[in-house]
Every structure is written in C-alpha cells, then in structure tokens.
Amino acid sequence: MPVVVVESPAKAKTIEKYLGSDYRVLASFGHVRDLPPKDGSVDTDHDFDMKWEVAADSRKHLKAIKDALKDDQTLILATDPDREGEAISWHLLEALAPALKKGSAVSRVTFNAITKTAVTEAMAKPRQIDQPLVDAYLARRALDYLVGFKLSPVLWRKLPGAKSAGRVQSVCLRLIVDREMEIEAFKAREYWSVHARLATPGGDEYDATLVSLAGKKLDRFDLAAADQAAMALSAVASRDLKVASVAAKPASRNPWPPFMTSTLQQEASRKMGMGAKACMSAAQRLYEAGLITYMRTDGIDMAPEAVMAARDAIKAKFGDKYLPKSPRMYKNKAKNAQEAHECIRPTDMMLSPDKLKITAEDQRKLYDLIWKRTIASQMEAARMERTTVEIASPDDQIGLRATGQVMLFDGFLRVYDQGRDDDDGEDSARLPAITEGEAARLVAHAFDDELAKAREKGGDAVAAPAGLKAGPGLLVSDKAQAAARQHFTQPPPRYTEATLVKRMEELGIGRPSTYASIVTTIQDREYVRKDKNRLIAEDKGRLVTIFLLKYFPRYVSYDFTADLENELDEISAGDRLWREVLSRFWKDFSKALEGTSELRITEVLEAIDDALAPHLYPPRADGGDPRECPLCGQGRLNLKTARSGGAFIGCTNYPECRYTRPLSASDGEAPIGDRVLGEDAGDQISLKTGRFGPYVQRGEATEEAPKPPRASIPKGWEVATLDLDQAVQLLALPRPVGPHPEDGVLIEAGIGRFGPYVKHGSKYANIADVDEVFTIGMNRAVEVLAAKQTRGRAAAAAPLRELGEHPDGGPIQILGGKYGPYVKWAKVNATLPRDVTPEDLTVEQALELIAAKAAKSPSKAKKPAAKKAAPKTAAKKPAAKKPAAKKPAAKKPAAAKPEAE
C-alpha cells in the first residue's frame, strides 16, 4: 500500500482515519536532517555546499519508512503547506533516496486543513516538490547558520558573558533595548485638566471637561502648573453655565478580519496572557486534530465555502439581522506569497466552543478565540450614536464639553471585540437626555469622595489658594462641584509579546513561522526577562546590542533585515537564485568579521562606554563632571563587566573606592556606594555593593581574615533606608530558634539561596516572609517543618495500568503525572503522545516509547538493567533447591543502617 509521510503522530492518526486501510501513514517527527552544530557545515569556499546529518532520534523513524517502502515504492509526502513543510519533504526524499528503486512514484500533496474533504481532494491533486520553496529554506538556514556560527564566537571573545547572536533575534533584541533606552531617557512633563459635574433641569448628572478658557481653546499643556489650574478651576466654579449645542452623529464599526499568525499571537497575549510559543503549540494541536486550518499564515482571506458556512452559522445562531446582505471579503496584504494561505479559522463553523470536546484548557480557550473572531468577521457592523454636548458661560469665557455614545445595534460585538494594548481614548460614557439652551447646573459635593481618597493615599498635597481644597495631585473647588487633576506624560510602554510581534510585522522582520521562536530565544539567552507580561532588556542584552551596533551596524539594521526577508521571499517565488543571495551577503559579512579580529576587550568596553555615555552619565544639575565619582571625588566612573555577563558602573579608584551602581539605574535614583552604618561589638558595619548586588559586611578584609562576615540584602528591603540594627540582624544569621522538642537537635532560621527558611538537622523548610526569620518561635518552626515533612511523604500514586515485564526485567507501568500520563520502567519515564490514551497503549508501543526516551538518557536505561541481573540469579537458586543460599539474603543489616544514622 502507498506510504504517506507527515510530521507528527497525531497528524498521522487523523489522516489515516480519513484515507482508510488502503494507505499506510507514518510520521517523520519533524525534520529528519539538520546542519551539524559545528564550524564548516556551510562551506563558504565551495558555493555554500551544506553538510547535512541525520539526527539520532530520526534514524528509527527513517528506518520505519524505509521498511514500509519495501512493500510498496509509492511515496506520498504530505508535510505542512509552507516553506518549512516543503523543506521537511525535501529532506525526507534526500534521506530515502537510497531506499527508492528506479521508477518509484514520489509525489507531494498539501492541504490547508486536516479534514476528510481537504485530505481526499489533496490526494487527487499530487504535485512534485516545489524547488523554489526549498531554495528559500536553504538560503534562510544557511544565513542563520553563518551569522550564528561566525558572529557568536566574536561575541564570546570580545564581550565577556555574552552568549550568542542571531540574524533576526539580535534585531528583535535591539527593538526591546531601544525601547528601554527611550523609557530611561524620558522626562515627564506636568499638565492639568479641569472637570465639572453638571445636572440637567430634570436632575440627571453628567461630567464635562474644560476645553476653552478666556475664549481660547485649551491645548494639552496650557495648564502646566497648579497655579494655572487653580485659576481655571475658580473660573469654572464661579460662573453660570448653559448648553450651547448638542450634536448626535451616527457611527458604525466594522468587524476585524479573521486571524493570521501574527494577529492570533497578539490577541492570545492580550486576552489570555499566552506567550507566542504557547499560542503556537496550542494551535498546532488544534490543527492536528482537524479543528482549525493551518496556523502559520500571512493570509486573511477565507475559502468561499467557508464564508458561506460562517453565514449559515450566524443565521442559525443569531438570526437574519446579524447577517450582512453580502459576504465580507478580506484581501491579503502578505509580503510573503508562499505563506499567504487561507486565514486561521475553524474547519466546521457549526462547531461552537460549547460543543467542543477538548479537555486541554489552553486549546479550548484558543479555539473559542478563533471561532468567535471568524464568525464575527462575517457579521453585520455595530451601529451607535455618538453625542457631543458643548457647554458655555454667558460671557463665553468658559467652554466645557461632554461626550458619550449609545449602542443602537451591537452587530458583531455580540460575539467578539478585539482587545487593545493601550487605551485608545474612546469615550463610551452614557449621557442623559440633554437639550440645547437648557441650564447646566454645577452639582455641589460631587468630588468630595475623590478628594478623600486622594488624601488617604498620602503624599504631598499641592498648595491650595483661597476658596479651593487640595489633596495630592488634586484641586477641588470650595463646594466640590469642580476639580482639577494633575497629570504627567508617560514614557512609551514596554513591549509585550503581542506588541513586539506587531512591531516586527510592521517592520517586515521575521515571518509567521519564526515569531514564536525569536521571542522565546532572546528570553532563553537571558538577554530579556518578562515581568508582568512586559519584556525588559537585561544588562547583558544591552551590551550585546551596543556591541553589534558599534561593530556590525548593518546586520542589526531594521531596513537591512527586512530587505533580506524580501529577498528570501523572492527566492521562494523563483525570482532570485539562493546562492547569489548568500554570496552577496557573505562578501560583506566576512569583511565585517575580519574588522574585529584585532580588537581587545578593553577597546570594546571603552567603545561601549562611549556609546552609552549620554545615557550612563547624564549632565549633573550643578554643572559638574558627570563622570566624577560621587563617593571619593577623585576617581572617574566607567563601565565594568561582571562574571555573570552583566555590567555595572564603577570607580577607577578601586579598590580604595568601592563605589558602584547598576547599569540600568532609573533616572534620579540615588547612587549606591560604600557607607558605614555604625559599630557593633567593636566592629565597623558597612553597606557595600558588589557585582551581585548590595550587601552588609562586618569589619574589613585582612590577611588573617580575607573574607569578613557578609550578608546579602534580602529582596524587598530598601537599601537606601537600611540601618545598623537591620545589618546586625542579617550578619547574625542563621539565627538559633532552639532545640527541637522531639530529638533536641537545634532548629535554625536563616536566608539562603532559595529564600528564607527554617532548618532542623539536614532538613529545610521554606517560610514565606523574610521578616519572619527574625521572629519565628519554636511552635511555628515545628509546624512549618512538620508541614514540609508531610508533603514530602505523600503516598505514591497507584499505577493506571500494569503492562507486564520488560524484556530486560522489571515492570512496565502507566502512571498519571502532572503533565499527563506516562510509561515508567526502572528510571525511564516516557510521556504518552497526546493522541494515545492509557487504555489503548500496547506493550509494543510502550517499549518503543521507552527505547526512544532511553536513547536520550542512556545512563538511566543501563543502571536498572544491571540491577535486574541479581534478582534473576537469586530467582534460580530456589529452583535448584538451595535454601541455604537464601538465608544470607534475609540477613541484610546494611539496608537498615540509614535509619540508624
């Protein structure tokens, strides 16, 4: 029977169900070949010949395919319908070539969705491998290899602590570093706004904002200080007001187009906090299960039959009024035609999320998002009425405005509303019925609660002129019918994964199949950290970026990277030759590499220090030298690198002066340097800052005691306010709590690598609060230790199934784990594939999973096999009727020794 090859077992199982017993469907488990991770895999001296290597894990999968081809030489390659899928098919054909006889039938089929209709239609229209797509893959793979294996060693040698560089990842990192520099260079600007609470003659209240003063329209910064805001506030509170005009304008909102890869990642991040990698993993599972179309696409168009199916679902679920007269058509804007497949949509529009039989929460939520976006994209527009009310004083010296909107028909918003990264300022407040010419009465005491809350929060209140009341950032008229609020301009927000992908898409950097891996890689390299869903550049990420900007500016240029992506797209379209693109790139890139061969580390640090000087050493308020050490006044500040790969600012007068401060210290932060906190027991207690942060020290280093007692400052403690008592407490740790009431062994409390703890002998138990280390008593300590011991002695879970004995000895079991069921034999734990249930797993499948897992960790497989030899020998002895041989086995006191200890 013909052999069909796909990437994954889950996909294979679904397709085999559709094709029936006439075909044999096997999985390649992704790529079967790759470039060996060593220098020379791309031969730049011989027209970029590439040396491929079959991965160890792939050999058994290739063997299974070769064995199947012995019965039938018909090979059908059905990998994913994109450049990467085409490359996998090409690699398979190259690796299987020796097993294929002359005249063998080899074909390529693609389908955008794993449904019976899509699969059977694709099988009826086979084609050959698309060589331009393969060429585009080869060019991309060679480029990434050359940058990684040629540029990364330069980083290692010239910039201590740097890990590696990447063709697209380094440009993505630059985006984050540039944004961080913008934020730190940002200077906030103050401005005020004035608001009033008004009432209609009927008593309905509404809010209005001051928009003109003294007959002049107010701009954002016209009220730049509290005194100006106070004058405007007094002017509003002292005048009668009347409605000058009421304008109601109809408005409509059209739905967003269906998802493509980038917009799906952005929306999953906004609405579910799901990273790009997690989003694509969940989408992959949905695709393999036949629930959605292919999830790596730049396209937003929808197949005509899918459009009609969506319209049928809308009519059935929501009625005719939610259905436009004609279908909505969305035009692709893809830069990369080869990835401009159909949009990401459900394969069955009638399968609403409430009918979905999926237990995985991430997949269920993502399907819900995709279904709603797709259905909404074909629904009627939302209709609303936007109202603007202008209020003025009789002398036209004061003008206020109230805005609001009324939803007349929700349309697509009944199903779906796109999330926003930042507030777009749209005013959706509801307004009461207001008539032109009616009086607008100021409502007394309307801002009393706001003033009270402002005062409760604390802080310095602004100075209040006569007739006004003040709180922090707030001025209120005497009768509290109007208020002035203080604002400060905000720096640009840090990127989230969603906004970063959006920016990369705008610049033309990367492609749908690469976004997730790019964002993940820069975090794995510790160049960037994620905090509250925002991406923050680490110091080592800054240094790498500045280094590349200094010595390889072209290769971290946004335009250059986008242009190169376009060239790769032209290769995939057959308009360029891939070796020519590589040759042109390598000619300039190799010269840039040669230009750094003579660089010394000190030169690199000086160059980075100079490049960062405006950021690291801003002008001082007193006009003094910004590089002068603020601690000793003699040394100069310069950039220093830490062993960890980070960096800090230190004094050239080291070790006499130990002043340091972080590289990324926020604007206005007090510098951290050595200072004496006081004396204790005749020793000087000092606060110091080292490469790993601030710490306290007892005494000074001497020849007799080169390492005096030290203690790091716990996380959450304010270094600026640290006093002598706190320092002495830290230096006294670990603190004895007392002897344990059961065995008399001392219990201690301290702060370790993993946070605050209590210790009893060799047993540790964490405690939540750092401050509790200094106050915890015996009862509480014993309770914490007992709770930890109880958790540690939880009973082992019973196996879900017993499969029998392994050929090498020992039981094979299926157990339930935190991440799903798995097969256990000896020390080998092999996770079950998602498409296999514990009830359906056979012994043969279990042995295959164990062998695959053991191949990755040979030591785990060998040790149990050696241990099984002894029981086998012992088992034979009773058969030979040698009971005497068993007696020593009963006398094994060694097994009891650990308990005696």
TrEMBL record:
Assigned keywords, A-Z: DNA-binding, Isomerase, Magnesium, Metal-binding, Topoisomerase, Zinc, Zinc-finger
Region of interest (Disordered), residue spans: 853-901
Biological process terms in GO annotation: DNA topological change
Gene3D superfamilies (alphabetical): 3.40.50.140, Bacterial Topoisomerase I, domain 1, Topoisomerase I, domain 2, Topoisomerase I, domain 3, Topoisomerase I, domain 4
A single cellular component GO annotation: chromosome
Protein's UniProt keywords contain Transferase: no
Protein name, entry field: DNA topoisomerase 1
Source species of the chain: Paracoccus haeundaensis
UniProt gene name: topA
